[in-house]
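tool_call predict_complex ligand=KE4
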Amino acid sequence: MTESTREPSTTSTTSRPRSEASHRRALGSLVGGVNSPVRAFGAVGGIPVSVDRAEGPRIRDVDGNWYVDYVGSWGPAILGHAHPDVVAAVRAAAGDGFTFGAPCDHETDLAELILSALPGNDRIRFVSSGTESCMSVIRLARAATGRERVIKFAGNYHGHSDAMLVEAGSGAVTHGVPNSPGVVPDVARATMTCPFNDADSVRRTMERNGDSVAAVLVEPVAGNMGLVPPEPGFLESLREICDEHGSLLVFDEVMTGFRVGWGGHQRTCGVLPDLTCLGKVVGGGLPAAAYVGPASLMDQVSPAGPVYQAGTLSGNPIAMVAGLETLRHCEREGFYERLGGLTRRLAVGLRKSAMDRGVPLQTTSVGGMMGIAFSERPIRDFDDARNADHERYAEFFHAMLDRGFWLPPSGYEAWFVSSAHGEDHVDRTIEAAASAMEDLS
Ligand code: KE4
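tool_result ok
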């Protein structure tokens, strides 16, 4: 998840006076007026739109405008917003108390369901965010291997822990340098970055550093530089390379877990990681994430083992119930076939609209997630993603917002379709996009 630094010139033509007032007020107390940077519209310009309600596939702003939503709160809303079954389950659980700070069967219920979807894993630890999941997994990998270094991929985002806020130098492999003030250079140096879809760069890195690399951490389908699927053989090569050098392979499936299919991409691609990070969908929209692995690794985490990790609200009973009810819907026969078909319909339709108008647009979909890039050529890594036309994306974003469609406010983000979307929503989106593309400069 990386935002362009260029200030786009585009702003929406629709006035949203209440959103503007909300944002002005928020600026007086919330840093940047938001609680997560991407919401601030930095990559697309204009005033962030404030929301007061969402239902099914739609979201409503404080000026009363409804939009077909393709952000889905960045992935969690896979059933759409306020699904009645999830609302009912959360209401019932809330009546029993919000948090106990003690073991609760809801945690074990969700744990067993998730582990049933990820064969080869028999332990899970719930945390409250994807950042915590990825941060904890790195600590565990370092403890389990006795090694310090980690390899990640340019354009992959694993939350905001220090070790993960690392920008590669130019080109292929380099020792990491911090890409945020406050990240200690020594911490950043332990993180090396390779180009996504370039297994040879990982091989070269390992040949130089293999005996010090604790883990290779990858988004198996990259969703933080637009949507970039792994090329055939890339994940298989990472598995082989890790086996050769005794490093752990970690799939960050915070976004892809239960989004691209039941379990995650590892079920689809057949490459099994040593450890897996989960988040978003598994909490059903409430704060819950997890990391998963075999007992041989996971039982090294406290209190079963010496690797410390803890959390006041970890396994929060209401979040567990929301996750359970959500996954029970996802588990139903045909759920992912329908979701994947709808998402593909959208991707194909947008690309055709663009081609009919001579607009260079790449679209990709994997399961219930999709990506677009205004680019002459397909996006295979972060350099390609950065070279796409993000100004044109910003124009398109506002043109679609004005037409009642809520896209991610950054060309580096993936789109998310929910089971509440129907063909009519998708077809109206394609029509609106065709009209919006007519207006692109
Ligand atoms: P959180 O700490 O935001 O729950 O999860 C971090 C994370 C880890 N791994 C992957 C693959 C992720 O995509 C994320 C978070 N995703 C972003 C959107 N691309 C969250 C949106 C935001 O930062 O506001």
